[in-house]
Structures are given as structure tokens and as C-alpha cells.
Amino acid sequence: MLSDLDRRILRHLQADPDQPVSKLAEAAGLPLASCYKRLERLQAQGVIKGSRAAINWAALGYAVEVSLRVTLDKTDPRAFDEFLAAARKVPEVIAIQTFLGVVDVRLYVIARSMPHYQEIYRSRILTLPHIADIEALMQVATIKEAQSLPL
Predict the structure, then answer these.
(1) Sign of the CA dihedral 80, 81, 86, 89?
(2) Average pLDDT of span 113-121
């Protein structure tokens, strides 16, 4: 269970993940040592999983983002494991999600251009094992991309 102080720390951490702990402690109204202890506890509990760099793929020349919804041939009991193992090896696949329902897996693919995407799709995606059906959704715009929770 999170205390009000924990939520306050998390709110300030979400707003500025790169801030030094001294600034975080000050913003949360805590002594530095208490803030460190609470951060360590939140990490040990798995509330804070770590920090990461948010990469702007478009700035690196990847102008095309496509979400592929994949339905697998589930007649083979190894279908999921074999598909996921192969999909992890495609460098342009930046996210893989699994679902219950008609769609089994969603792959997020980035490419430098449409011809580059077509090459990835034909040579790497369509060769993945156990695909029964695949649907592509091309991203046009990102309207909202929230990384913080309402704590």
C-alpha cells in the first residue's frame, strides 16, 4: 500500500525523472535520507522498475510506425513460443504484446520509409512462424502519449 508521501514522491518523479534525489526530496518535503529510503523501498517492491531513455525514433530517421495485429495458428502447441522467439529477433520490432481474444499478438514495427517497411514486412514479418492472419495499422499521428499516472 502506498502512503501519501510515496504518492507525492512518485508524482514528482514522473514529472521530472532526471532530477537529482536532493531536488526530489525537497519537492516532496522530505529529508534526503528519508527520500532515498523510500525510493529504495519502492524499487524493492517493484513499484519503480527503473529509468529509461525515451527515444524519438523519427529523429533517428524512422518515419514509419506500423502496428501489426497477428492471429496465430494455434493448432500447434508451440505456436506462441516459436512466433515470439522469432519476432524478438527482428530489430525493427520495438514492442511485442500478447492478448486474449481474436488477436493474439501485436507487433510495433518502425521503418525509415515505406519501401523500407515493405522490405521488413516481406522478408522478416511474413516469414515468422505460425501466422494465420495479419492486419497492419499505420500510425498517422500521436494525439496523446501519457507516461504518468494520476497519483
Answers:
(1) positive
(2) 97
